[in-house]
Amino acid sequence: MFKKYFSLSSDFSKNTFTLVLGTVIAQAIPFVLHPFLRRLYSAEDFGAMAVYLNLFGVITIVSALRYEAAIVLPKHNNEAANLLSLTFIINLIFTTLVFLVLLFFKDEVVRFINFPVEYANYLYLLPLGSLLFGAYQSMNYWLIRQKAFKASTSNKIIRRVVEGGVQTTFGVLRLPGGLFVGDLLGNLANTISGGKQIFKNLFSFKLVSLKKIGFVANKYNEYPKYNVLPTLLSSAANVLPFLFINKLYSTETVGYLDLSKLVLSIPLVFISATISQVLFQQITSKKHDSLSIKNDMRNVLFVLIAVIILEVVVIMFFGPLLFGFVFGEKYELSGVFSQILIFSFVLNFIGSTFSSVFITFGKIKLNSAWQVMYFIAICSLYFCKGLTITEFLMVYVAIEVIMHLTYCGFIYWIVNQYEKK
Asked: Over the Cα atoms of the chain, what is R_g?
C-alpha cells in the first residue's frame, strides 16, 4: 500500500512532489536570506516583527469567517465559486473594521500588547496585509480544489522572491521598516498572481450571483457558527505566549524565540503544509465515493515519524552550535530555546498534517471544542509570573504536548469511526 500511494505514478505522489518541490524552492529563499537579514536587522526588529505577524495571524485566520475552508467541499464549481466570492466580501468588511479600530485606538492597542513605540506606525499595514493574505488564502483553496498544485507552488515562490528582495534591499540601504514593507509587498505579489491563476483554473464571475452567495452562506453556516470563535481563540493561543514573553521579559527575547520558531517550523512549512493540502483533496474525494482512507493516513504518518526523528536528533545534539554558526554567535540562545520547544513542534507537525480530517468529516464542533480547551490551557501561562524564561518555556511546552496529544487522539477516533462504517 505504501508503494501504491508514494510511487511516482500515483496522483498523490505526483501532487505531493509538486507541492513539496515548490515549497522547498519558495521557503529556501527566506532561509537562505535569513542569516544575512539577522545581521542587517537587530533582534528587536525581529521581535517587533514577530509580534506583528502573530497579530496578523489572528486577524487572517478569521477574516473570512472560516468559509474559505469549505471551498474544496462542494461537488460542483458553481457552489464553490460563490463561496469564494463570499469570502472576498467578508474579508473586505472585516479588515476595514480592523483598520477603523487601529485608526481610533492604536495607542491603546500598543500599550495593551506592549508593542515597541518606535514600530507602532507599522501596525497600520496590518489591515491591508490581512486583506491581501485573506484573499489569496481563499484563492489557494480554489486551486487545491482544481488540483492546480503547480499554480499554488509558483505563487509561493513569487511571494518569497518579492518579500526577500524588498527586505534585503531595505536592510542594505539602512531604510526603516524593511521587514514590514517586504511582508506587505510579498502578500500583494501573491494575491495578484493568485488572481490570475484562479481564472486560468475554471473560476468565472458568470457563476456568481448575490442569490447564490446568500444560498451558500446559509448552507455552510456551520463554519461561522461553530468555527470562528474557537478558531480565533486557538489562533490567539498561538499568539499569547509571545505576547506574555514580550510583556514579562523583553522584545529582544521574542526575537530569539522567533528564530527558534522559524527553524523548528521547517517541517511544518516544507512537509506538513504541502502534504496536508494534497491529503485534504484526496480524502475528501474518497469520502464522496465511500472509499477507505486508512492506508493514506498510515503511509503519511510513516513519513512524518521519519522526519520527526531526524529533527529531534539534530536539534537536541547540535542546536546551539548550528544556530550560532548559521545566524551569529548571539543566536546560540535560540538554539537553547529550540531544545526546549522541539517536543511541542513535532506534535503540532503531526496534528497540522491531518487537521483537514475535521473539515472533511464535518467534525467542526469537536475541533471547536478542542480549540476552546487549548485557549484556556494557554491562558494559564498568565499565572507564571516570576519564572525564569527557561522555566516559562518548560511550562508552555508541557501544556502544548498535552493538548496536541489530545488533538491527535481526536483525529484517530474520527478516522476509526469512518473506517467502521
From this structure: 21
